[in-house]
Amino acid sequence: MSQPKERASWIKGGKATCAVPEGGKAKPWRLVLLGAPGVGKGTQAELLCERLGTCHLSTGDIFRAAKSSAPKERTPALECALGYMQRGELVPDATVLDLVRERKDCLHCGGGFLLDGFPRTVKQAEALQQILRQEKLALDGVLDYELPTDEVIKRLSGRRTCAGCKAVFHVLTRPSKKEGVCDHCGSKLYQREDDRPESIRVRLEAYATSTAPLTDFYQRLGLLVAVSASGSPEEIFQRSIAALQARP
Ligand code: AP5
Prior knowledge:
Layout: H1 8-12, E1 29-35, H2 41-52, E2 55-58, H3 59-67, H4 76-87, H5 93-102, E3 112-116, H6 122-134, E4 141-146, H7 149-157, E5 159-162, E6 168-170, E7 189-190, H8 197-211, H9 214-220, E8 224-228, H10 233-245
Helix pairs in contact: 2-10, 3-4, 5-6
């Protein structure tokens, strides 16, 4: 597991820049990751980014970074978004779309991108298609990770996240070498507020109602690539690559 790449432009927005490869890749992959909360999208994003050189564009990471920033640095919309997130509810489409539009340059990242956690509603997916058209970009595929709900709940309830570099661990399946301490940067590991049982239930309901219909949306566009999320992260990664390469 290597240290996650710097993503200042995405995480901070505004005028922030990051040191990412400026083009030169034979094929920069442009992908969306779909799947229920806790299915392992972030874990796969880490492997895909490490090996394909793509940038991990997670909307959840923007909100979590805002939460740890000084309150005076947060806009009222972002402040309001944090309340939704803590309860496990979806943040309103208008807020999410403003954040993504503000960061549209990240879609031109020379290494390509992996959108994780966005889009999450049909309205967001339609808006993304419009942004991509305006920017003269196209998706190469939408990886849809599938896992039974009881497995998803086990993954979420054992997750621990690094307060410093945001690396993800699991108390049983991916423990850190020293309990409660990140292997990469030595910061403390914590349990996300939305990984408490009451928020997990709300998140899974929000997924079933608002995000699951996106599979039909992308199926119609011929972009959907269904991948089983059972097995080890490496097995799932290999399955993802094979499924992407098998696309016409
Ligand atoms: P977000 O951050 O996007 O969270 P999520 O979709 O709920 O996904 P997670 O990060 O919880 O899980 P994951 O699939 O990445 O799993 P992971 O790899 O960590 O969103 C959070 C909130 O922000 C939302 O609820 C909402 O409020 C708001 N939000 C964000 N975007 C939004 C949008 N577009 N619109 C509206 N609201 C938005 O893995 C989970 C655990 O399992 C880890 O411990 C990991 O180590 C372990 N694990 C992973 N793979 C395996 C494996 N193969 N075997 C065993 N264990 C594994």
